[in-house]
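dumping these here so i dont lose them again. two proteins, back to back, each one seq then structure tokens. dont judge the mess
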Amino acid sequence: MRFDAVLFDCDGVLVDSEPITNGVLRQMLNEAGWALSQAECERIFIGKAVRDERARIEAETGRPLTEEWMRAFYARRDERLRAELRVMDGALEAVRAAHRHTSGRIACASGADKAKVVMQIEMAGMRPYFEDRIFSGHDQPRSKPHPDVYLAAAAHVRTDPARCLVIEDTATGVRAGLSAGATVWGYCPAGHGRAFEGLAVERVFRHMDELALALGRR
């Protein structure tokens, strides 16, 4: 098993940020008049950019989704992340293994805003491995589930997407990786991969140690 490049999602793959981000989002939507349970908020928003659900947010709250509201969300989210962010167990070793396996051709391709992704990768101690190879769907014509961010990452590391391994934890991200033409492995630390049912995920794994071992951890 040999891949020329490994492309990682960030939230829910490298760092355990989704409960924090989703919790802040739910609180702010509740304050705006949309009463959501945590489970409902996760089902609607995990794997997506908040702006992707603009029409629904505006319909449920009766208010426009303004840039001021988004700035307030980012500020509250980042404050919580700085205080509470945790690295996924084994993720740093998996990144190191991927870096060795590909002679440095790894990248992070996230649906989140780039400032958040960079902050999290730095907090996780992974920036020396990714360097400038950090990509956001916000900077592409289309975000996930479209393939644009993975195609951009593959192009940057000068690798045919068909020779890339994508690591994802959501159906939205898996669709993006598959649409790019990559091999996709589904990371599912707290379940059995049901989120990937019906999708052509080549492998489902529950701990980052499995990824490190598969890529030849030394």
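---- next one ----
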Amino acid sequence: MFVRTAGDRDLAAIRALLVETWHATYDAIYGAERVTEITDKWHSIASLKTRLTRPNSEFLVADDGKRIGGVAFAESVEGGKLVTLKQLYVLPSLQGRGIGGMLLDEVIESFPEAHAVSLEVEEQNTRAIAFYEANGFVRSAQAGDHAGATGKPTLVYRRPLAG
């Protein structure tokens, strides 16, 4: 797999990856019907397309030439000092192979002026929490700005950077 910037031609594959990954991750937490509602809204082609041109952001895919195996989206805030990781997903069948780490590394490299990376994660997404903690993220004392589908605030994690 190699990491590159996402483009228009990738949107259908990105949507399919997000739908598959969300169902695999969240069906047991929210139920399949609620996951379908969320993915139809948040991961529509139109919604994804807006990310391609969003200022101060990076929309990445992990690609092996045949399929998209992972996706990440991040944007800089606070004058470029903070990167907010909005999405990082890897196909369930490819998880545990270093793709998430490659995407995370590329996100960090895309924002050399940043001093930290922040993200929000659903409390019940224990696999993602383990991944982020293994990659140097520490839970913040604050609750996330977004409520998960359960209505509970998400957890906030932060990783300082050398920049």
